Each structure stands twice: as structure tokens, then as C-alpha cells.
Amino acid sequence: MSKTPIKKRSIVFFLVPNFTLLPFAGAVETLRIANRMLGYSAYEWRICSVDGTKVSSSSGICIDVDTALADERRKLSGENRPNMAIVCSGVYVEEFHNKSVNAWLREAYGRNVAIGSLCTGSHILAQAGLLNGKRCAIHWENLPGFAEAFPQAEVYADLYEVDGNLYTCAGGTASLDMMLNLIGQDFGEALVNRVCEQHLTDRVRAASDRQRLPLRARLGVQNNKVLQIIELMEASLSEPISLLDIADKVDLSRRQIERLFQQEMGRSPARYYLEIRLDRARHLLVQSSMPVVEVAVACGFVSASHFSKCYREFYNRSPQQERAERKLAGASSKLKIAA
């Protein structure tokens, strides 16, 4: 009688400078625990960087690697080709441009290697052209800039997304959920439950679970009408809706809304609306190369001059200064890594 073949999966984790340590460690540990529960190495992994040297995470902790990108490109045509390649990145991902990485990802995907990403890694997959017309996830903080930079991608504020042979994860502890999904595909729910017991996870979150806390918990607001109004505002940042339209949608008068906001938020609804639009603008300035005038339009401002005036009043610096400081911080980080 022939024995049932043992399932195995080989994974390459590609580390980008300033990658986030938490999702990387969470993914690897989840696979390690699965191996321990199975009693054999069903999941094997190796760690890769562009040049084969160690990579510094955003926390400053460096990780040694096993291979260089050139090694992995050669392995694609041999018996050591992986089943999956996962890009791990973090802050300053928009400054990472490497044509060889893009080519490797495209070739691997063309050879039926599953491609994944952790935290902001979707940015690199999109650069490689792999996410056009595909569902993907990215950390909520990077979502506005990503959506503007890659309009062909269908990006969602979910914990993770699986679209065919593409696995994208928002980062943080969501990497555990994506790996548990992978383990479930390979070995079923029983092993998933055993892994959860080992790393003290009381449930497996669904891919579509929200990344951020609910508004009620995040803002400390209990009034349902105020929460409903804020949801309307957050859904209409590029084309702000008038307070009269909001009042009509929530069955309140304009005066009632203004009174509620003063009681619950300590400021007028117009001021709060402006603040969340400016917050989105700040994310776009530091996470994209969009011209300031395009950032202004994307955040619902009628002109760049009006946007700059509001931005300076709120943040005590101009949009141009914000972007310059961001570039300086990125350059400083690169110098630390080189050192």
C-alpha cells in the first residue's frame, strides 16, 4: 500500500530595509508551531535580502539572511524553487525601488509561485504590476497613499486578502491570521485550532475583520448620531458633503448637529471635518510623491493655496516642509542602516 505523500511548503521571506518586525515574527512563529504540532517540518523557510547581507527592521533589530536576490532568481528554474515568496516591509516603503526585485516577483508569479506581502509589502507587489485588478490589503495608515499611487489595485482595509495566488496582509498581528488561513488550506481546521492554543489566540479572525478599533472605542464617543455623522465624513474626504446634506441623512437639524459635536467632540462639525481631511493629507504627503496640488484635491480642498493655509494653521508648518522633513528622516534612517 502506498503512503499518503507528506505535505510540504517552502517559503522565502524577502526583507526590505525598515521592515516591521512584528508581522514577520508572527508569521514565522505560526509556521514553526504548526511544524511542532505536526511532528515534522511541513513548512520550511529561508530569508532573503537584495544583497545577501543582514537587514535592519524599523525597531533597529537586524536579521541575518540565508540568500541574496540573485540566488533566489537562480533557484526559480531549479528544484529549490519555493512554493511561496513573501515580501516584508514597513516604514519608508514608498522609497524602495528595485527593478530586480520587481522582475523576480513577476517571474516567480509566472512560475506559479504564490506571492505574499506583510504590512506595507503590497506597495512593492503593486510596483511589480502584480496587483492590477486584484484585491489586496495594506496597513490602514498607508492605504490613502497606496490608493492614490496604484488606482488599478483594489485595496481594502481588511486584515488580509487572498486573491488567487496572491496573499496580502495589513501587518501587525494580522500576519498570524493569514498564516492560519494558509495552514487551514493545507491541513484543516483541527491543526489551526491546535496552533491557536499554543500561541494563546482565542479565535481566528476573518480576512474581512476590521484593522482599526470601532469608532466608538477609538474616539470614546457613545452618541450614535455623532458616530453616524463621523462615518459619513470619513467616507467623503475627497468630496466633502455639506452640513445640510449630513443633517438630512441623519434626520437632525444643523443646529442639533452643532450642539451634539460641541458636547461630544469639543469642537464644531466643520472643524472636525477639516481635521480629518488634513490628517489624510498628511498621510499622502509623507507616503506618496503626489504633487501638493493633487494632495489638496484628493482631500477636498478647492485650491492648493487654501490647503496650504489650513495645513500651516493646524500643523504649524507648510505641506512642503512636512514632505521635506519626511525625506530627511528617511535619509537619516538609511545612513543608520549603512552604518
Features:
single chain; alpha/beta; 11 strands; Rossmann fold; Arc Repressor Mutant, subunit A; 15 helices; 2 domains
Mind explaining what this structure looks like?
With 339 residues, this protein is α/β, with parallel strands linked by helices. The protein folds into 2 domains: 9-198, 3-Layer(aba) Sandwich (Rossmann fold); 215-330, Arc Repressor Mutant, subunit A, CATH 1.10.10. It contains 15 helices and 11 strands. The protein has helices at 21-38, 69-75, 99-110, 122-127, 143-149, 174-187, 189-198, 215-219, 224-234, 243-250, 254-264, 269-287, 292-298, 304-315, 319-338; strands spanning 9-15, 43-49, 55-56, 62-63, 67-68, 84-88, 114-118, 135-137, 154-156, 160-163, 166-169. The strands form 3 sheets. It has a 7-stranded mixed beta sheet. Strands 3-4 form a two-stranded antiparallel ribbon. It has a two-stranded parallel sheet with strand order 8-9. Strand 6, helix 3 (99-110) and strand 7 form a beta-alpha-beta unit. Keywords: DNA-binding, Transcription, Transcription regulation. Pfam families: DJ-1_PfpI, HTH_18. Residues 227-325 form the HTH araC/xylS-type domain.
